[in-house]
Design goal:
With about 130 residues, this protein is an alpha/beta fold. The protein has helices at about 10-25, 70-80; strands at about 5-10, 30, 35, 45-50, 60-65, 85-95, 95-105, 110-120. About 20% of the residues lie in helices and about 40% in strands. The strands form 2 sheets. A 4-stranded mixed sheet has the order 1-4-3-2, with helices on one face. Strands 5-8-7-6 form a 4-stranded mixed sheet, covered by helices on one side.
Length: about 130
Amino acid sequence: MNVHIGLNIVDLEKSIGFYTKVFGENPVKRKEDYAKFIPEGLQLNFTLNVRSKVSGNQVGHFGIQVGEQEDINHHKKRLEKLGFFTRDEINTNCCYALQDKFWITDPDGNEWEFFYTKKDVEVTESDQLCCN
């Protein structure tokens, strides 16, 4: 099974450029007002749907959970080399878990976190953005 996310966006070219870099691969389908990614290894069917207007952030955030601490470092370095600004959260208590993560923002203001869960914890910070 794949998770499907259909994201409304304003500028298809900017969004394709952003997500091609994030996923490390090109869309598998591309039309005038649509693009589809099925990133290898993510079990994700991700589509971009052009709308005349997108107002604010349509969701809380999106995230990609990685299996190893080294994966966080790899993806952070990879995306910074491509020109992305990353915001780090190291040893953060989020959603009843101790995590290392970093955040990036797409052209329409949607936030993405790449995160590694170190261990589960019994308490969480109530003002955290996340919940994975």
